[in-house]
Amino acid sequence: MAKLKWETLSSEYIIKQPWATMRRDTCKMPDGRIVDDYYVLEYPDWANAVAITEDNEVLLVKQYRHAANEVLLEIPGGVIDAGEDPKTAMQRELLEETGYHFDDIEPISTMYPNPSTGTNICHAFLAKGGKLVQGQKLDEHEEIIVEKVSIPELKELLAANKFGQALHISSIFYALIKLGEVKL
Questions:
Q1: CA 65, 69, 73, 74 torsion: positive or negative?
Q2: 184 residues of the chain, pLDDT tens digit each
Q3: Backbone angles phi, psi at 6, to 5 degrees
Q4: Angle of helix 166-178 relative to helix 151-159, nearest 10 degrees?
Q5: Which CATH class is domain 46-178?
Q6: Where are the domains of the chain?
């Protein structure tokens, strides 16, 4: 594997904002070829969860996604703050977005959303036994509708291609496998 790794010769930031950071790298391939102007998007890591309440209902969220120009059905999730543990971030995001608190949260996968151009990692969790403890505490630009479905309904929504976010689809599959709802 080491023979495939590129060496970064230089990096220059083109834009550096909280939600949009892009740099231009110059790299050297193992055979000596130089790759000029390789653009890399730096995003923070994030977490998502298939969250099942104490009543065995799965929490889903609907929210507008501007780049897609769509209201999407998703699983709860969000950005991991700098220095924050992914599991702690997931607990925080579940509480903020849904008002549910979860003690039973286990990691089910770690994925690179787009490793050819992006630096971030998505940590997926299975959260069980959630209890409603507060109302939503959304960020300034968030508008989220929480819905609850059964596990069979979740499977139907998945089969009907009702989820638009690829990482959520894979996280749901991992959770269903962990729950014994999908056999490989």
A1: negative
A2: 668 999 999 999 999 998 789 999 999 999 999 999 999 999 999 999 999 999 999 999 999 999 999 999 999 999 999 999 999 999 999 999 999 999 999 999 999 999 999 999 999 999 999 999 999 999 988 999 999 999 999 999 999 999 999 999 999 999 999 999 988 8
A3: -85, 155
A4: 140
A5: alpha beta
A6: 2-42, 46-178
